[in-house]
Specification:
Blueprint (H helix, E strand, L loop, with lengths): L2 H15 L8 H23 L5 H27 L11 H12 L2 H29 L3 H22 L4
Helix pairs in contact: 2-3, 2-4, 2-5, 3-6, 4-5, 5-6
InterPro entries: DUF4142 (IPR025419), Ferritin-like (IPR012347)
Keywords: Signal
Pfam families: DUF4142
Length: about 160
């Protein structure tokens, strides 16, 4: 190994060690943001069809409204950036979460919904925070930054739920 490649390797290792994140590709952000919103809407509609808990129903209705809005915001920012995102698709993990939620019944479904929402919102928060700080499309970065406090509010609400 020559000096130059040794320095480059050491620098790469120190950057990785320091936790400096590489920029999230715009295509990845669009895919993750779209899939996250789609999951939220599907899971919430499923729970709305069966839950007897007024708090769960109120939260699920808010998820459908808020995630429909964030989908519109991201799509609009993408178009402003000259991009035409594909329709969102659930990831394999999200498909499994929907299947598990479908199989659960009654209060077990409500409890699973809240648990899944905590996980999904943490992933959404990381996605939007990452793109807001490392993205390369200004309109999408601004949109991601606007979505972050909404997701944080959802997490606060979930953490105060009794389940």
């Amino acid at each position: 190994m020559n000096l130059r490649s040794g320095i480059t390797a050491a620098l790469a290792a120190s950057v990785a060690f320091a936790g400096v994140a590489a920029a999230m590709p715009t295509s990845e952000y669009l895919m993750k943001a779209g899939a996250g919103d789609l999951y939220e809407k599907k899971a919430s509609a499923l729970v709305l069809s069966s839950s007897k808990d007024a708090g769960i129903k109120k939260f699920a209705n808010m998820m459908i409204t808020d995630h429909t809005k964030s989908t519109t915001m991201v799509k609009s920012a993408a178009m402003k950036s000259g991009l035409h995102p594909k329709p969102p698709m659930l990831s394999p993990d999200q498909k499994k979460m929907i299947a598990d939620l479908t199989a659960a019944k009654g209060k077990d479904r409500d409890a699973l919904y809240v648990s899944q929402q905590k996980t999904a919102h943490q992933m959404a928060l990381e996605t939007h925070q990452d793109y807001a700080s490392t993205g390369d499309k200004p309109a999408l970065k601004e949109t991601a930054a606007k979505i972050v406090p909404v997701v944080q509010e959802h997490i606060s609400m979930l953490n105060s739920m009794p389940m």
